[in-house]
Amino acid sequence: MFLKLQAFTRLSSFDREALAALGHLQTQEAQPRRDLIREGEQPKAVRLILSGWACRYKDLPDGRRQIVGFFVPGDFCDLNVYILKEMDHSLSAITRVLYAEIAPDEMERLIDERPRISQALLWHELVNASIQREWLLNVGQRSARERIAHLLTELFLRLRAVRLTEGNACDFPLTQADIAEATGLTSVHVNRTLQELRREGLIELTQRRLIIPDLDALMGVAMFNPNYLHLDHEGRHLDAND
């Protein structure tokens, strides 16, 4: 779980041990398509995804839903959410999800005692904000083809950062409805666009598995600039003692 944070700041062996211990705290399991917590409920802990995929979403009274973020292993679902009186969004499992619930005092102790981790967590939140800006640009300016190519590229790179890819392939449990709700498109439009990307040899998507034969080509279609993910170890100059 510390692989993602190490992309931002070098962590000592003690830092890594402290993060690994989080996975042995209060762990919970959510079944596929079940909510971890709903809008309006009181948040009492920070959630860290240990395995599986989850999403953040908002919905309307008539049932329409917008996915505003995906979580993969190593992602925290809002670091300071426990200061709120109630959730202003919902979290839901895409697949079976195992996650740690970190009590506020435990989170504050970790931040106070491990300054490198505190710095890495700050980067984590800044990157989350950067991803939200990119998603807003997606919906506001990119075509359907560009939006979907961009989403596939982003998720692949995020999974690769935590070593959950195999060469040019990765697990991909999202349905066409999930992609539609994340990109502001209809399922029909998503289906048509995915078929187009397949015909051009840009992606292979079968049996919950994504293969990207030529990542640079897909990035070109999406006009993808990976700088917003900050996965190039920008914090490597911030050395850590073992």
TrEMBL record:
Family matches, as InterPro entries: cNMP-bd_dom, cNMP-bd_dom_sf, Env_Response_Regulators, HTH_CRP, RmlC-like_jellyroll, WH-like_DNA-bd_sf, WH_DNA-bd_sf
Alphabetic keyword roster: DNA-binding, Transcription, Transcription regulation
Domain HTH crp-type: from-to ranges: 142-216
CC per GO annotation: cytosol
Gene Ontology MF annotations: DNA binding; DNA-binding transcription factor activity
PROSITE patterns in the record: HTH_CRP_2
Protein name in the entry: Crp/Fnr family transcriptional regulator
Organism encoding this protein: Sphingomonas desiccabilis
